[in-house]
Structure formats: structure tokens, C-alpha cells
Please model this.
Amino acid sequence: MAITIPSQDHTDLKPPVTSIGAIGWIRSNLFNTWYNSLITLVVIYVLWQVIPPFIDWSLIKSNWTSSSAECHKSGGACWSIIHANIRFIIFGFYPPPEQWRPLTAMIILFTLLIVSRNRNWWSKNLLFAWFAGMMAMGLLMTGGIFGLAAVDSAQWGGLPLTLMLSVFGLTAAYPLGVILALGRQSRLPVIKSLTIVYIEMIRGVPLISLLFMSAIIFPLFLPEGVTFNKILRAQIAIIMFTAAYVAEVVRGGLQAMPKGQYEAADSLGLNYSQTMRLIILPQALKIVIPPTVSILISAFKDTSLVVIIALYDLLKTTQSTLSNPQWMGFSTEAYLFVAVIYFICCYFMSTWSRRLEEDLDTGR
Amino acid sequence: MNPEKTAPTGKSSFRHDPEKRAIIYQVFALGAVLLLGYYLFSNTLANLERQNIATGFGFLDKEASFEIGESLINYSAADSYIKALFVGMLNTLKVSLVGIVLTVLLGTIIGIARLSSNWLLAKLSAIYIEVLQDIPVLLQLFFWYSIFYQFFPAPRQALNPFSGVFLSNRGLVFAVPQSHPAHTYMMIAFLVACAGIFFLRRWARKRQEETGKLFPLFRTSLLLIFALPLFTWAFAGAPTAMNTPILRGFNFTGGLNISPEFTALLLGLVLYTAAFVAEIVRAGIQSVSHGQTEAAMSVGLKPGQILNLVILPQALRVIIPPLTSQLLNLTKNSSLAVAIGFPDFVAVANTTINQTGQAIEGIAMIMAVYLFISLTTSVFMNWYNKKSRLVER
Model:
């Protein structure tokens, strides 16, 4: 048996074309085994069935600025519903001449959010900027001073309402949640059990029951003659709800603190509030930033539930557009539009949270 | 705050004694909570008196006088409120249980697909997870519900994909076997098979511990669970009569009807929650290090055994706690049924509140029902966590 050993030099021989480049990539990622090949073919077939008709419907045959009658005639998507009603969907019943005010408020909020994305700019000044910004937002929406016409909260609606309910909700819920978490970790049995009852009760019930409570029962809690508006009551329900979830997240951070930190603080002679304020909370709250952003995302999505108690948030304004006989039957287009708004906001926050998680994972 | 740290010598002033100070704090906290409670309670009583609303649960025995669209038990408008609420609760449980089963299935499939070596499948799963997580569940419910009305025809022109199955804007109607006593016997046979498998498993485990012999448990269980009801069916006369839906007037009669409300609710809840479950499953599988698989291979386990004996027990320990909380979320989110008109517990309680004005009692009942479900689940979870805890030596 002679074994032929090729004598020529191999160094400039290229790898086979089928294992590098596009073909190689396809072979190793899509057709590496018989079942993967089968899956790939099935997936491609399904996509072929779904995507071309969708493009046809949403782009090729679609109407963008036509009237509803023309829309009914053509078979494509009727994006005109968005075009014709965009003002109402975004701003609700806010008086059109004053529309620049919620718009400015939203721009302030988005600027603050974008600035806060960069962790190098986190400072006390940014915190003050947040408070000033939120005050400005509240003033712009309410009006009544500095020559701004007063706008009744019953006229608030659309995207500004959705954003305010979630941002103000989390801002107020956060300190409350920290206090609840400290209470739950406390050694004082009465305080511990009170906070446990609160947290577990709120986490055990759906948000909708709290919203019902805010709409129907809160007015009964107040003495005769004292009332406050529906939006504020819904906001209180959202704060109560979010605080319980913040408390659980913060508790996770507190439990992750090594015992040595407490002991070191004790040995320095710090008292409880000093220990918490100077040693424990700064570290614990840093760990829980990513899960806190997740809470902000769910708070943002959950504000859509105020539809059920008839507040005109983004979802409700869209729905009432659809109840207009002229635009009936175009709900898919309208809901897709709102879904895209929600998706963009949430995606922005979740990518941010993922990046923070990587940044903060310093491997202590 | 450590009571042992500074020994009270009797002489120390009152406010420097941590033990006494702790008592003072707690008395203050309790006092504040009680005071607030009393304030709200007295205001409420005064308000109720002024509005002439009677308190108490006496209204539950009165006639409900409203119809409920779908019910698992016989119900008519002449029945009492308590029965109406019970119907609502059964509907909540129905949608939650069906939803939980489908969510776990779909979530597991997508979670595994996310880790697939097939690039296309993995990317599609990733897109699914990201998109569905970021759209509010209520919006998804509205979307699916609107699809029913926008794209499906009226019952007269119902789509008929298979014989006996009709799809229209009144929901999905399909043929079911005509009711026959054999079905009850089959159910009993199924339960007997389940009990049999439970004892068989205990016996097989004991025998393996004593003698080391393996018993083909999975195949035997599969055989039992299918064969026993099937034999019962054959012995009871093998009834094959079907109850087929027939178009009568403007709607179908006969067959089993799944309403658009139920379908939209189920679809929305399952697709939304499955995205979260998929992430949990993916994280759970990735948490088991590859070395475990290699070690199992090196001791000569077969692929099925590796999955059953090595990977799953470790992955499940990571998966189960967050999975339970997602499934609880699904149950709580089922209360959004009220927005699309499916008569779940919240929707029925809401109608009750509107009719009787008993808001406090109504909302207290809603909260009590969901609290009961959550607390029973967490008691069970605590038990499970204790049982499955890693025993370190």
C-alpha cells in the first residue's frame, strides 16, 4: 500500500469556497444539519406567505392622505386615519391653540431622558434639572399663571397624559418604595409586618382593581366637600401599585449587601440613618438600577389600563377615533400606529437598561 | 439598632436606650396607621350614610337580573348575584388555566428556538420576544379583538376550513362528540391512569434505589394514559355520534362555540406572556454550564437521560420561580377581560357594582379573589423552593 504524500507546498491554497464567505455562512448557520435545513425551508416559506402580502397591504396599495371613502374602495391599508386624526390621538381634548404647551412638556421630558442616558452626566445638577423639568411640565400642562390660560385636567389626554402618569408615577413611587423596602428589612416586628402586609397585598391584586378603587372608592374616603380630580386619583393608584414593586426590587439590592458593610458601619459608630444613607443605600440602589428601569417600562405599559376607567390616554384617544363612523373598520392601522409608539419608547428604555447592566457590572 | 450592643444600665436616658426607642417607634407607626385607617373609615361611613347606601353583603342573595354571555354552569338572569359572581370566577379560572398551559408550551418552544443553531429561527424568536414584550397587553387584546370584527365574515358566510369547523365574527364553532355516559367513564379511567402512574413511579424509584434496575417509566405512562380511556370507550359501546353546528337564523346552534372575546383574551394573554416565559426558559437553559453535559456524556448517559437527569433538574430550579410569577401575572392580567367584554370575575363584579352601588364590597371581593390565588401560589412556591433547594455538602 503506497501512501501518496503530496509534495507541493500548501501555503497559498485557499479553503474551499463552500466553507467561507456567504455560502459558508449559510451552510453553517442555516443548513448545518438535516433538521436545521428543514426548519430554514419552513421558516422561509412562512415568511414568503406573510411578508409580501403585508408589504403589499401596508405600502403598495395603501392610502396616506385620502378621505375615508376612497380608503374603503381600495384594498390596502388606510394610513389616512392617522393623518386625519393625529392631533386628537396625540393631544386628546387639549385646546388646539394651547397645543404647544404639552408639546414643549414632552420635549423637556425627552431631552431629560436622552441626557440621562449618558452615565457621565449623572450628577446632582441633573437631579435638580429633573425636578425643575417636572415642575415646568406640570405648570405647562395646568397653566393659570404667567399669563398661560388655565386648562382643566379633564381636557388632558393622549401621549402627554401617558408619559406624565408613568414618569410622575415612578418618581413618586421610588422614595416610597425605598422606605417600604427598608421597613421590610427592619428588625422592628410591627414595622416589618405592616410593610409586608402592604407589599404583598398590592402585589397580589391586579392594577385594575386599584384603578377601580381610585375611581369609585377614593371619593368616599374624603370628608364632605373635598374632591380631587380623576387623573390625580388614578395617579395615586399607580403610585401605590408601583411603590410595592420598587420595594421588592430595592429589597433585592439590600439583601445583596454583604454583612460586613453593616458591621463596618456599626464599628464606625454610625447610627441607623447614617448607615443607610451613607453606606448601604448608595451601593444597594446602584445594583438595582437595571431592574428599576424594567419597572419604568412596565409602569409605562401599565398606564394604558386607565382606559378602563375612561381617562383619555394614548390608547383611549385612538379608540375614540375608531368609534367615529367615518373611520370605523380601520382599527388595525390605528392600533399598529399606537403599538409602534409604545414599542419605540419601551425599546429605547430596554436597550438603555441592558447597556447600564453591562456598565454597572464592575464585578465588585 | 442592635439591642444587645449597648447594655442598658438603667441609668441611661430614655432616648438613648435602643430597646425602648424601638418600642416608641413602633407605637408611633402603628398609631399613625390606625389613625389614618380610622379617619378614612369614619369619612366613608359618613359619606355612605349621606348617600343612603347600605353596607354589607346582603345584596348577594338578590336577583342579579343580567345575562352572562358565556358560562360553564347553568345560569340565567333570575339567579342571585352570588351565582353570577361564581360564574365570573369560573370564567377567570378557565381563561387562566387554558392560558397557562398554552403559555408554558409556546414560551418553552420560543425560548428553545432562541438558542437554536439555526440563525433564521433564533433571530425570529429574538424579534418576537422583543416586540411582544414592548407592547402593552391591553393594546394587544384590542388588536386581536378588532381583527375578529374587521376580517371575519358574518355567520352566514362563515369560513369553513374543515368540515364541522366554522369561523365567523361570532367566534369559532366546531363539532364535538354527542354527550354520552361513556365520556364520564373515560374521565374516570383517565384519573385512574394518573393515580396508577403516580404509584408506579414511586415503586420504580424504590426498586431502582434497591436493585439499580431501571424501569421504562415514560413509555409505560404514555401507554396507560392513552390506552385506559380508549379501552373504556370501546367497552362502553364506542359512541361516535357528533354534535355538529348548524346555521339557524343569524347564528349557529349546536357544537361548541368559542366566543371572539374568549379567543381574543386568550390570544393576547398567551402571546404577551409567552415572550416573557421564553426569556426565562432561555436564561434557565443557559445557566446550566456546558461542563455538566460533557460530564454526563463521559459517564455514559444517553442524550435523553442527560436532559432528564442532568440538565432539566438544574435548569428548572432557575426557571420555576420567575415562571410562577409570570403565570400569576397572566392570571392577574386576565382581569383586562372587562375591557373587551369577556365576563370574567372583574367584569361581573363591575356590573354588580354598577347595579347595586355596593362599590366597597365589590372591589373588596375582587381583591380577595386575586389575593387568594396569589397567596396560595406563593405558599406552594415556598414549599417547592424548600424542596428543590440545592443541598450543599
